[in-house]
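Meet our chain:
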Amino acid sequence: MRRRTFLLSGLATAGAVLVGWGVMPPRQRIRGKAALPVSQGAVALNGWVAVAPDNTVTVAMARSEMGQGVLTALPMLVAEELDVPLSQVALAQAPADKIYGNVALITDGLPFHPEDDSRTRRGAEWIISKVARELGINITGGSSSIKDLWLPMREAGATARALLIEAAARNWKVPATECRTEDGHVLHASGKKASYGDLAQAAAGMTPPSSVRLKTPGQFRLIGSSAPRRDTASKVNGSAVFGIDARPQGMLYAAVRMAPTIGGTVGSFDPQAVLKMPGVQRVVDYSAALEGQTGARAGLAVVAQHYWQARQAADALGIKWHDGPHAKLSSDAILRELAQRLDSDAGHTFHAAGDIGKLDEAAKTVRAEYRAPYLAHATMEPMNCTAQVAGGKVRLWVSTQSPSFAIGVAARVAGVQPADVELDIKLLGGGFGRRLEVDFIAQAVAIAKECGGAPVQVIWTREDDMRHDVYRPVALARFTAGLDGAGNLLAWDNQSAGAAIGHQFLKRNMGVPGAGPDRNSAEGEFDMPYEIPHQRIRHVNVESVMPVGYWRSVGHSHNAFFKESFVDEMAHAAGLDPVVFRRGLLHRHPRHLAVLNAAVDKVGQPPPGRAHGVALHQAFGAIVAQVAEVSVMDKEIVVHRVVCAVDCGIAVNPGIIAQQVESGVVFGLSAALMGEITIANGQVAQGNFGDYPVLRMNQAPKVDTVIMLSAEPPQGMGEPAVPPVAPAVANAVFKLTGQRLRSLPLKLA
């Protein structure tokens, strides 16, 4: 009894502490503990903004640039509130500090329906957002950069502006309320004027205001403009530095060979002949460094003075591999398992409304099964990392979406503290979720650890990249829906099966075992806007020996295809035009309806021999409607034009939004028409762009983008244009051929 009393008292105390912590204000995100990197006499006014005597404003860049435009859009937020021209702003890589952690990415992962306004949801979001601030994990993903930093970076700019005004007011001995700012200067009605550079030193010594007033949308001068991208010129003239361009002094090169079979290990090899080859320094077995990395392949590396020397020597290693327990794994077997699990398991119900039993009362019932394959990321810049381990320190030159995880894995592999890891983040030649992972970083650090302090650059071949990816999961979905006697959609039952990405990702990168429902598996299905009286959406998590990861737009990428294709099936069953049918399901969703109408109005009528297919989908907070103009020639699907209307809240930079739409359409079409990773004998069959093609320039459609005016906070745009492409094309193909394509990639019989 005494032990029970002690335990219960302890739990009660812990609960009281938790409740007390839960109601406390969340951790602020303006002032950091780590020093903001500055030079040329600049002084930091907070964790985001520093001002130099020459009036240059340095802004901390806390997100990785992988083509989505954050090097331009994020400093626009600070420049707007600080009242400085964007041309006056320089960027510095943000140091490791919790204020730069991505809060929105973590809170967006909660499995709540968008229309759930319950106290449970509000409480969960409050607590998780506080936890996210305490963790301070810096990640670029989930189309969250603008959404997450919309307030912190504006508040940082406004706070700095307030300090500069106060410094000028004290110097001039006038009330601060009589001062205003313009183009990097503080001005007074008397004609006095001072540059930020002249005021910065005094401002840095003042106490920041407890609160600041942010501009209203009507006061924006920079936000909402298509400011030219800051990274364009360097990418055109070749001066842009990506991870693969790192060249520290004395650098060596490493080529790797990884077990070809899932779960395979190194058997035997003969390094002696290889070590006699020109330029070869050593052979390293790095397998132990990847322990705990789900699906990571054991293997060897050859280190040489030049990359081609390392490649040739790696080819000559003569490795004999142990296949491991999954040598008979195949795509067919994986799909059979998913089907069996759907037959036997109810899965987790993500959303239910009304009474699904009403299906039995339907005047017409439609059933369908859809499937999607594994997909590789296929970034144009293959995986690479340059690492140096010397004097108890680690230095990394790398393109990464996960600075926090990169530092953590480097410290673990090298046996040092995270504070002893220096990270130099380069431009990313494509990320798409692949560079959220740190397997290639662990590999590089393990190899560099054996190289006597020399920096080593590990470069994967395209075949390494294609066959050792963390893939978008294969997925299977079943639908049953019914119409009433008037042709109205009465009931909708959707069950899907696939691997839980979040479970694997947490285990790989945080050492935390995944458990419970994974929102990524059912997103795009359970959170649809359609007003169906009786609905149920379930998902069955199926453990996967294949490594799976976040692929651009994640679960939305295939669930949008499943859902929007089946909506078209129901429209056909009701004898209605697909657009008219959708409009009838959106009476309480005016924003979705407006986006749908905008896309349809823009596209007009299809030319002879072509058809229009439509899809409407919401992902990462942005509502997207797409109309694909398609023709079919000799069983080849040709996409001529895609019209895309988007409501992503306030458009910070409309030009970048249009670019992301175009990028998303091309990326999504590559997968819709050609993308497929298959498994045979425990190995990935595809190895390069010859058997895993991507859309070529002559195949790319004309893309028209319509950006809806909005005063809502900005939402994600890096990924939302990807999901609607496949169903829009498939729905157009049905109009042309009468064939309902229910499997990706889309292929006509």
